[in-house]
Design a protein that fits this description.
Helix content: 25-40%
Order of helices and strands: EHEHEHEHEHEHHE
Largest sheet: 7 strands, parallel
CATH superfamily: NAD(P)-binding Rossmann-like Domain
Strand order of the largest sheet: 3-2-1-4-5-6-7
Region (Disordered): 194-219
Structural class: alpha/beta
GO molecular function: oxidoreductase activity
InterPro entries: NAD(P)-bd_dom_sf (IPR036291), Sc_DH/Rdtase_CS (IPR020904), SDR_fam (IPR002347)
Strand content: 5-15%
Biased composition (Basic and acidic residues): 194-212
Number of helices: 7
Radius of gyration: 18 Å
Number of domains: 1
Family: Belongs to the short-chain dehydrogenases/reductases (SDR) family.
Length: 256
């Protein structure tokens, strides 16, 4: 049991989190997935009946995180945790005009991503430290290219992801050398076809959508899963922020 590496993925029920869960399970890892959506977790339980634990949890709530990590610690036994992926967030970045945004809605964006990353990282550290010096553990935070560039009326989402970036390099300095901490900044990642079955959509992108990306296509959740796999095993990489956006953020866009 201890020879099999273990990973925790927050926001595991849909989109990038769902892809991460399936990807790492396919690599032979034990996977613990946290999400608020019980229906989505039931689908994952049916798909992955072995080497997996799925827990309903709002990772922005301290007591729920404590309860979930107690269950994960029992599931792990004496085995170490190899990686935590702080992926949970409010997917929709648009919050409307600043003058109309309530404090509670603002806090919703911050709690779902930034506060959740803090709470889950704090809870995971004792489990990650079990690895010892022979195999360094890691935390991967899912940030966003919106941490460094913005569209109108996305400031709450952008602030939460900018906080994730800052938390990442600060944690890397504070938790090393036993734990490495890095971030992935996804660009446009199409997730509508990676939802639970009742909300899944067929997707087709316009030529101009694909043309925004030098690689010639919109991103897929699997692209992020592969980036996280790299960071989970890149033993000399910490405190970094990896843009996974098909080159979109380096391409100049001109209006017609």
């Amino acid at each position: 049991m201890s020879a099999t590496r273990s990973i925790i993925v927050t926001g595991a029920g849909a989109g990038i989190g769902r892809a991460l869960t399936l990807h790492f399970h396919g690599l032979g890892w034990r996977v613990a997935g946290l999400d608020k959506d019980e229906e989505a977790l039931d689908e994952l339980r049916a798909a992955l009946p072995e080497r997996a634990l799925f827990l309903t949890c709002d990772v922005g709530k301290e007591k729920q995180v404590e309860k979930a990590f107690a269950a994960i610690a029992e599931w792990l036994g004496d085995a170490p945790l190899a990686c935590l992926v702080n992926n949970a967030a409010i997917a929709d970045p648009y919050c409307g005009p600043m003058e109309d945004l309530s404090l509670s809605d603002w806090n919703g964006w911050i709690d779902a991503s930034l506060t959740a990353a803090f709470l889950c990282s704090r809870a995971a550290v004792p489990l990650l430290r079990r690895n010892g010096q022979d195999r360094v553990a890691s935390i991967v935070n899912i940030s966003s290219t919106r941490a460094v560039m913005s569209e109108p009326e996305t400031f709450a989402y952008a602030a939460s992801k900018g906080g994730i970036d800052a938390l990442t390099h600060s944690m890397a300095v504070s938790l090393g050398p036993a734990i490495r901490v890095n971030a992935v900044r996804p660009g446009w990642i199409e997730t509508r076809d990676w939802q639970k079955s009742s909300e899944r959509e067929d997707v087709e992108h316009r030529p101009q959508d694909r043309a925004q990306h030098p690689v010639g296509r919109v991103g897929r959740p699997q692209d992020i899963a592969e980036a996280v796999e790299y960071l989970a095993s890149a033993h000399f990489v910490t405190g970094q922020h990896l843009d996974v956006d098909g080159g979109m953020t380096v391409k100049m866009i001109y209006e017609d």
